[in-house]
Amino acid sequence: MSEPRYWREIPQRYRLEAGRCTKCGKVHFPPRLVCASCGGRTFDKYILPDEGRIVTYTIIRVPPAPFKDQAPFAIGIIELMDGVRLMAQIADCDFKELDIGKKVRVEFRKIQEEGKAGILQYGYKFVLA
After folding, report:
1. CA–CA separation, 87 vs 75, rounded Å?
2. Closest to 78 (Cα-Cα) out of 69, 66, 91
3. Tens digits of residue pLDDT in 59-116
4. Preceding peptide of 66 cis, ω within 30°
5. Which long-range contacts (CB under 8 A, 24 or more apart) does 21-28 make?
6. Is the distance from CB of 21 to CB of 37 less than 8 angstroms?
7. Are 128 and 99 in contact (CB under 8 A)?
8. Full-model pTM
9. Which residues of 103-121 are buried (b: 16+ CB within 10 A; e: fewer)?
10. Which residues contact 75 (CB under 8 A, 6 or more apart)?
């Protein structure tokens, strides 16, 4: 991920900031310029809840190069308490404990190091609740 993009996305990655359409109330994460539901163009800042349930998951055993040192790891689609779905790593778990419907919570974690300078990039991951 490019450095400028990473910096632009810090509110979403660090604080789970989403956009809620002022016209219809649909929540978009990451925030959008136009509401997919009603075409509205004004949004309020909305902080996503930090708990949810596993909708589905898989175990990554052959990851892309930036994540080689983390393999194997679990990736899941998580439905938060307000119905918004996110895809993220499920960290610090025994794969045998993973199950659809299991409760998880968000934690702020290191995602990867970027480039030769080793710039640390942080974001959200989920852990079993």
Report:
1. 7
2. 91
3. 999 998 878 888 999 999 999 999 999 999 999 999 999 999 999 999 999 888 877 7
4. no
5. 27/82, 27/83, 27/84
6. yes
7. no
8. 0.83
9. ebebeeeebbeeeeeeeeb
10. 57, 58, 60, 87, 88, 89, 90
- Residues pairing with 106 in the sheet: 126
* Burial of residue 26, with CB atoms counted within 10 A of its CB: 0-12 exposed, 13-18 middle, 19 or more buried: middle
| Nearest-5° Cα angle at 65, 104 to 106 | 15
Task: Give residue-wise pLDDT tens across range 31-57.
Answer: 999 999 999 999 999 999 999 999 999
Q: Which two structure tokens, joined as six digits, stand for 127?
A: 């852990």
Q: For the chain, what's the residue count?
A: 129
Both tokens assigned to 11 = 């509110």
Under 8 Å between Cβ of 87 and 77: yes
The CA distances from residue 87 to 22, 38, 57, 75, 90, in Å, are: 25, 24, 9, 7, 9
